[in-house]
Amino acid sequence: MVGLLIQWFVQVIHSLYFNKLRLISESARSEGGRLWVPRAREDKRLSTDIPDKERWYFLEEKYPKYGNLVPSDIATREIFQVCLDGYGIDGKMQVYLDLTHKSTAELNSRLKGTLDIYKNFMREDPHKVPMRVFPGMHYTMGGLWVDINQKTSLDGIYAAGECDFSIHGANRLGANSLVSCVYGGIVSGISAFNYVKGLEKTLDISEPIFEIKRSQEEEFNNSLSKQTGVENAQLLHQEMGRYMTENVTVIRGNKQLQDTDNKLQELQERFNQIDLNESNFWASQSLPHARSLRNMLELARVITLCALARNESRGAHYKPEFPERDDENWLKTTIATYTLNGPEVSYQETDTSLVTPKPRKYN
Ligand SMILES: Cc1cc2nc3c(=O)[nH]c(=O)nc-3n(C[C@H](O)[C@H](O)[C@H](O)COP(=O)(O)OP(=O)(O)OC[C@H]3O[C@@H](n4cnc5c(N)ncnc54)[C@H](O)[C@@H]3O)c2cc1C
User: How buried is 4 (Cβ within 10 angstroms: 0-12 exposed, 13-18 middle, 19+ buried)?
Assistant: First the structure.
């Protein structure tokens, strides 16, 4: 495992279709989409039967200046809160994204493709009926530490794209993944080429280092595939996902973060009791899945422990006990280093010499 990882701030988008895990483009909001829930909890009426005065346009009320145009992380957090307070449609984690007040001509000229896809998957016409959306995973801002040439902390290994930490700070701006993919891709390609060209000699492929690593991994595969026990890897994966989604995404309380880390350590213990219950590993995904799960548990601890340590709110990291950004103490990058005893956390100063940070304010 590469040694250095940077804190994984996690971005959650507000607008996936309910139950379909597909994204409604942010442009639906920028084209005038209004987010709302019924004013009365557990209102069972159809959206179209609820009159305007009985609808709670929560972003418009809470942020009169920006309304539905607040940035994605604020919209997501408000949806989360509204749903946690019991106002979600049908008591679930979902709200309406309403474009029915726009003319068909306008919607067709600006959002036709997006709305057609919604209609095909949901069998509801967003021209006539408000769409139902909910927050879901969107992006991880952190990743492998890289230097200016996209080199990781291991010589000869380069990283680019969503897997490196370098571009987005605590909150990626909309549509900016392209920067990390395109820029990082170009730089890492050239850097890797120059690295190889500059080597006095390449590694002799017969060096034992490869064989040692291969036999270690084969040994691990063998023992995992023969292991017997009472645990199911898919269920452990689900349990990890539930804890991480509930406690380490949009709202991050210290108690919940500590509980999550305790749970993750418990899951790591239980991993040793996994029974893959498989006779034909050639045609099955169970072994690669279990191997990935082991790494996911390690990374989940990185995300959780870094969030626990950071007692402030910044970008996509929102901690209710510490709702303000605290540049004096926390304008720094978190680094997690892999050790056999779990992630070790340290910090690196952030260079703000070119742009002085200012607080984000939307009210
Ligand atoms: C729903 C959604 C909507 C988005 N919308 C936008 C948008 O509008 N604008 C925008 O800029 N960004 C958007 N993003 C983010 C953007 O799509 C991603 O950040 C970007 O595609 C990441 O590209 P990548 O090449 O770095 O990584 P990926 O596309 O994740 O590629 C990584 C590849 O590595 C492979 N892989 C993983 N593990 C292994 C392994 N062990 N061995 C071999 N291969 C492996 C994976 O299968 C995958 O093909 C969106 C993301 C989501 C989830």
Answer: middle
Whether residues 231 and 314 share a domain: the answer is yes
Nearest-atom index, ligand 1, CA of 136: 1
CATH of the domain at 244: 1.20.58.100
Which ipTM was obtained for this model? 0.96
Residue of 26, 30, 144, 162 to mutate, ligand 1, most atoms within 8 A of C-beta: 162
Check if the beta carbon of residue 48 is closer than 8 Å to that of residue 41.
no
Q: 318 and 254, same structural domain?
A: yes
Report the number of distinct structural domains present in the chain.
3
If asked whether residues 118 and 156 sit together in one domain, one would say: no
Same domain, 83 and 151: no
* Of residues 333, 326, 362, the one with CA closest to residue 4: 333
What is residue 230's three-state secondary structure? coil
Looking at the domain assignment, is residue 187 inside a domain? yes
123 and 192 in a common domain = no
**pLDDT by residue, tens only, the chain of 363 residues:** 344 556 567 776 666 665 557 888 888 999 999 999 999 998 999 999 999 999 999 999 999 999 999 988 888 889 989 998 999 999 888 999 999 999 999 999 999 999 999 999 889 999 999 999 988 888 888 889 999 999 999 889 999 999 998 888 888 877 788 888 999 999 999 999 999 998 887 766 667 888 898 999 999 999 999 999 999 999 999 999 999 988 998 889 999 999 999 999 999 999 999 999 888 888 889 999 999 999 999 999 999 999 999 999 998 899 999 999 999 999 999 999 989 999 999 998 888 999 998 887 776
Tell the residue nearest (CA) to atom 2 of ligand 1. 138
Residue 117: domain span: 13-140
Asked if 145 contacts 153 with a C-beta cutoff of 8 angstroms, the reply is yes
Instruction: Tell which one of 139, 178, 294, 296 to mutate to probe ligand 1, the residue whose CB is within 8 A of the most ligand atoms.
Output: 139
